[in-house]
Write a structure and sequence with these properties.
Blueprint (H helix, E strand, L loop, with lengths): L1 E5 L8 H14 L2 E6 L8 H13 L4 E2 L1 H5 L7 E8 L2 H6 L1 H6 L5 E4 L7 H12 L3 E4 L7 H8 L1 H18 L7 E3 L7 H7 L5 E6 L13
Length: 216
C-alpha cells in the first residue's frame, strides 16, 4: 500500500511544500508519491511543469507503479500518477513528459466511456513507457459500496472488471490498483492484494471527501 499527495489546486499543496517533499525524498533516499487528475484544468500547467523541473534538478528519476510491483527498489525517486479519464489532457503532455524524462502511471476509471480515439491515445501513452492501471469501473467509494452491497459485490462490480477491461483491450495486465478518493479499508486491501501486488491510496492535507485514508 502506497499513499500519494495531490498536486491539484484544490488540495492546497503549493510549490514550496512540494519542493520540501522532493528534497526530503532526495536526502532520505525515499520515493515520493504525487498524483493529479487533469493538468491544465485541475492543476495549472506552469505549476505542474515546475514540479517536474524541480525533480530533474534534484536528480530524482520517475518510476511507475508497475516498477514497484516488479520489485524495483528505486531509492530517491518520484512516483507520479494521474487518475480518472482525461486522456486528452494526458496526451497533450507527451512532449513535456519526454522533455523531463517522466514515466508516469495512469489509473483509469470509466473505461467504458472511452472513445476509440481515446483508447488509441491511452495505448500510445503505454507505448511511450508509461503504465496503465486500474481505478474501478464507475469511480465509487469502496467502503460505502461494501457497506451497502458487500465485499463480493464491490469486487465483482467495481474493482475486478476495471482490471479485466484493460487486459481485454490489449494493455499489459494491470499490477496496481488505485482507490477512488483514496477510500479503503483493511478488508478491501486484503481482497485486492489477492489480485494485484500494489495498491495506491492518498494522503489528504486538508478536508476531503473521506478522512485521510493513508494507513498509519
Amino acid at each position: 500500500m502506497y499513499c500519494a499527495v495531490d498536486l491539484d489546486t484544490v488540495a492546497g499543496n503549493e510549490l514550496d511544500a512540494i519542493h520540501a517533499g522532493l528534497v526530503r525524498a532526495r536526502d532520505r533516499g525515499e520515493a515520493i508519491h504525487l498524483y493529479a487528475h487533469s493538468p491544465g484544468r485541475t492543476v495549472p500547467l506552469d505549476k505542474f511543469e515546475a514540479v517536474l523541473a524541480d525533480a530533474n534538478d534534484l536528480g530524482l528519476p520517475f518510476v511507475t507503479y508497475a516498477d514497484l510491483a516488479a520489485g524495483v527498489q528505486p531509492g530517491a525517486a518520484v512516483v507520479l500518477s494521474f487518475d480518472d479519464q482525461d486522456v486528452d489532457a494526458w496526451t497533450a503532455l507527451r512532449p513535456t513528459f519526454a522533455a523531463h524524462q517522466v514515466r508516469a502511471t495512469f489509473f483509469v476509471s470509466r473505461f467504458y466511456a472511452f472513445t476509440a480515439a481515446g483508447k488509441a491515445e491511452l495505448h500510445q501513452l503505454e507505448a511511450d513507457g508509461h503504465a496503465i492501471e486500474a481505478h474501478t469501473v464507475f469511480h465509487l467509494n469502496a467502503p460505502d459500496y461494501v457497506a451497502d452491497r458487500g465485499l463480493a459485490a464491490w469486487l465483482a462490480d467495481e474493482a475486478l472488471p476495471s482490471i479485466a477491461v484493460l487486459t481485454d483491450d490489449g494493455f499489459a495486465p494491470p499490477v496496481a490498483f488505485a482507490y477512488p478518493f483514496g477510500a479503503r479499508t483493511s478488508e478491501t486491501d486484503r481482497a485486492m492484494l489477492a489480485h494485484v501486488p500494489v495498491l495506491r491510496s492518498v494522503a489528504f492535507a486538508i478536508s476531503a471527501p473521506v478522512a485521510d485514508a493513508c494507513p498509519e
